[in-house]
Specification:
- The radius of gyration is 14 Å and the shape is globular.
- Helix content is 29%, strand content 22%.
- It has 129 residues and is an alpha+beta fold.
- It has a single domain, classed as Cytidine Deaminase, domain 2 (3-Layer(aba) Sandwich), CATH 3.40.140.
- Helix 2 packs parallel to helix 3.
- It contains four helices and five strands.
- Bound molecules: tetrahydrodeoxyuridine.
- Tetrahydrodeoxyuridine (THU) binds next to helix 2.
Length: 129
Amino acid sequence: MTDPRILEEARQAAQNAYVPYSHFPVAAILELRDGTLLSGCNVENASYGLCMCAERNVLFMSVACGVPREDITSLTVYAPTDTLTTPCGACRQVMTELLEPETPVIVTNGRLEKRYTVRELLPDAFEIE
Ligand code: THU
């Protein structure tokens, strides 16, 4: 099952989600090699196209914080839904660019869990050589 420390962090981060339109909170947690956890949540906007997923928020933050992708050991996506919430296509494309292909992506609702790699979530992804 999901590392309890990461799950607790995800539950906290999901409470920060700004979701007045969808009422669908999501948290995304990056675990670093030294055990540091970076947390993100989804942030919505009245101009719906500006809504930003939890996954992209935390991935962009890792860049802003200067975290080398080699130091990221996992990405956990948490949504308190009955069935598992898997990342959208846009987030998969960003994961492909900002994480290693074999980095684990753990999807959880706190009870159920499924593990993927970045490559499994977006095979044959578009990349500029
Ligand atoms: N959302 C995420 O943050 N991550 C996902 O993996 C799926 C969708 C957000 C976007 C929007 O704020 C809300 O969930 C409903 O789509």
